[in-house]
Design brief:
It contains 9 helices and 11 strands. The longest helix has 18 residues. β6, α6 and β7 form a beta-alpha-beta unit. Helix content is 32%, strand content 29%. The protein starts with a strand and ends with a strand. It has one domain: P-loop containing nucleotide triphosphate hydrolases (Rossmann fold, 3-Layer(aba) Sandwich). α3 runs parallel beside α5 and α4 crosses α5. The structure holds adenosine-5'-diphosphate and magnesium ion (MG). The site of magnesium ion has 4 residues, from α1.
């Protein structure tokens, strides 16, 4: 099968001798939702950045639709892949509409600003994250969760087939978590886009992802379908705690999926 995204044997060393990625291989197939899990500092954000070509690797290679990201032009790359990093803080005075229109940058002609179609896509993207009507607000006038959704709308407006999101639901309430993932699943099923996302929410990952990869100290501890990864030994080995397990029939995929909750024994 053609891989949209492929990383083979990545080794990434930061200055100061921190090895963030250690022989890590990950891929993303067309029409797939793949979640990256793992404790703080396990290399999840570094992996997404490396996939986009934002780091000089010690060894290993990344491919976006078979191409080396370092050899792609920024417009070409932005048409194929988008990334929402953690903790981005756009300028407080920027209008929500203008932030989302930044996502159209790679589609604009060399001369001239966004046109009617770009504005339609901007409004559609805001609708997908339930921010319709907030176009004229300034970023400094949004709540943390609204700001996170505005940044997601900017990425969606890019209309790239590959979507990378780093903890996209960390500031969202349960309702918006579900509507965001449901919207992502629709994009994947109806438009053939693919999502690689980082999350600490094991249950949301299980419900909405086709595949999970569990990182630990820059390596992949476990990879597979949710029921193959969310098992007691694997979670205990990775997170060190105890977990309560169950299963539910999940509406989004219409099959039984596991859930796991951290549990204090004493
Ligand atoms: P995660 O996203 O899984 O929490 P990161 O990929 O952000 O983890 O970080 C992986 C490791 O690399 C951690 O040990 C972190 O402290 C370290 N690290 C991250 N960014 C840098 C940096 N710019 N310089 C040095 N070390 C870094
Ligand atoms: Mg991170």
């Amino acid at each position: 099968m053609v891989k949209l995204l492929e990383a083979r044997d990545l080794v990434l060393d930061y200055p100061g001798g921190v090895r963030a990625l250690d022989s890590l291989s990950v891929d993303l197939a067309p029409g797939e939702i793949h979640a990256i899990l793992g404790p703080n500092g396990s290399g999840k954000s570094s992996l997404l950045e490396a996939l986009l070509g934002l780091h000089v690797l010690t060894s290993g290679e990344c491919r976006i639709l078979g191409k080396d990201p370092h050899k792609m032009g920024s417009r070409e790359r932005a048409r194929q892949i988008c990334l929402v990093l953690q903790g981005l803080r756009p300028p407080e005075g920027m209008r929500v509409a203008d932030l989302v229109l930044l996502g159209r940058h790679a589609h604009l002609p060399w001369i001239g600003g966004p046109g009617k179609e770009d504005r339609r896509i901007m409004r559609e993207s805001l609708d997908l994250v339930d921010l319709s009507g907030l176009e004229d607000r300034r970023m400094g006038q949004l709540s943390g969760g609204e700001r996170q959704r505005a940044l997601l709308a900017r990425a969606l407006a890019q209309e790239s087939p590959i979507i990378l999101l780093d903890e996209p639901t960390s500031s969202l309430d349960p309702g918006h978590k579900l509507t965001l993932l449901a919207a992502m699943r629709r994009l994947v099923e109806n438009e053939g886009r693919s999502l690689l996302w980082v999350t600490h929410d094991l249950n949301l990952a299980s419900l909405y992802s086709d595949r999970l990869s569990l990182l630990h100290e820059g390596r992949c501890h476990a990879e597979g379908k949710p029921r193959e990864v969310l098992i007691p030994e694997v979670l205990h080995r990775t997170y060190g705690g105890e977990f309560l397990f169950g299963s539910h029939w999940a509406a989004p995929v219409r099959e039984e999926r596991p859930w796991a909750l951290p549990w204090l024994l004493d």
